[in-house]
Amino acid sequence: MKIRNIFIIFKKEFTDLLRDKRTIIAMVVVPIVVMPLLSLGVFSLMMVQMKKIEEKTIKIGIVNYSESNLIQGEIEAPDENDKKLKVQFIKASNEEDLNEKLNNKEIQIGLIVNEDLTEKLKSNESSELIIVFDQSREVSQMASRKISAKIRTFRDVIRDERLKGIGLSDNFIYPIKISYHDLSTPKKIGAFIIGMLLPYMLIILSVAGASNPAMDITAGEKERGTLETILVSPASITEITFGKFFTIQAVSIISTFLILASYFVFLKFGLFATMADMQLKINIPFKSLALILFLFLPISGMFSALLLTLSIYAKSLKEAQSYMAPIMVMTIFPAMISLLPGIEHSVLLSFIPIMNISLTIKGIIRDDFNLLYYSLTFLASTIYALICLFIAMNIFKRESVLFRA
């Protein structure tokens, strides 16, 4: 096997791919523009939308069987920071009318005040207050949380007054007070979010980046009738296989590098964080970027060899494209493990393909790097890549596959 022949084939195939607009789009445009917009952009837009919902006036339907407007007054009253909720009360004649208004989206939340409210409070007893909301609507959920917080505050004030009346304090009811001290920072929160999104995006793009060149330089050459030309060249089947393999892997690595660079720029300057009014400017160190890119050498090799095998087996581009869909689906689900809460890396998971890459990248971004898991993941991915490459070389040596009609 001559390195020179492999390089010539690689140069020829890579040059041909660069002439194809589809390759440029998949290798450059998608990583630099589309992926950051899909992940960071969509997340930021979601946060912007949530903020808009929070600032909207809460329409509260109320069935007040009591003659007192005590509840309305407490909800409209400013809090300890002198902030008021934007609320609008809409009267309902009865509970059925209230439910109908909520179902018709005329209101976001409903309140039912019992007629004994004033009497019960005066006699140091409890009166029931019913909150009606629709959990399937985000605006109703948010309104429920806000109004519930207001009512709980009012309830605590009444409780403290009653305790003072009998010479007690809230220490009598709460012998143990729980205080929370959150050590998270905007940087940690940002790393938490990016640690879920980036591994998934990188793995999917690695497959997508390798699929187009794999189909074009194998099934595409079969359709164009140019495969025979390269087969009769002085290069051996092994050299041709390696040349095409390295071409596919190069495109996959370039795509991965570009999306990492794109995320680095967007996160460095906090472009989307500014849009969402969030302080999530995080800086992924160059060391972390290098570790992630190095980790993609074997996984991109595995994808490249697998896609090369399927593409050369296909009789046409159309058939090759039909093979890509199952591969993409089989990749998406293991890659999504980074999105699942509570999944911790382990020695066992280090040997499960794709999952190990997703969890390792997640740990690197969150500054939770583990050398053992990283080494095992790299080793396992290298073994899987070599197995897939061995299969591809054997498939390439079969004339029944190369000239499959």
Outline the structure in words.
This protein has 405 residues and is mainly alpha-helical. It has two domains: 264 residues, no CATH class; 107 residues, abc type-2 transporter like fold (3-Layer(aba) Sandwich). 66% of the residues lie in helices and 5% in strands. The chain is built from 16 helices and four strands. The protein has a four-stranded mixed beta sheet, with helices on both faces. Strand 1, helix 3 and strand 2 form a beta-alpha-beta unit. Helix 7 packs antiparallel against helix 13 and helix 10 runs antiparallel to helix 15. The longest helix has 35 residues. The radius of gyration is 31 Å and the shape is elongated.
What are the salient characteristics of this protein?
single chain; 405 residues; mainly alpha; abc type-2 transporter like fold
State the separation between the terminal residues, measured CA to CA. 29 Å
Strand order of the largest sheet: 2-1-3-4
Supply the helix-strand structural class: mainly alpha
* CA radius of gyration: 31 Å
Helix content: 55-70%
Order of helices and strands: HHEHEHEHEHHHHHHHHHHH
Instruction: Compute the number of helices.
Output: 16
Supply the number of structural domains. 2
Write down how many β-strands occur, each being a DSSP E stretch of 2 or more residues. Answer: 4
- Which residue ranges are poorly predicted, with pLDDT under 50 across at least 5 consecutive positions? none
What shape does the CA trace take? elongated
Please state the average pLDDT score. Answer: 83
Largest sheet: 4 strands, mixed
- Please state roughly what percent of the residues sit in beta strands, choosing from under 5%, 5-15%, 15-25%, 25-35%, 35-45% or over 45%: 5-15%
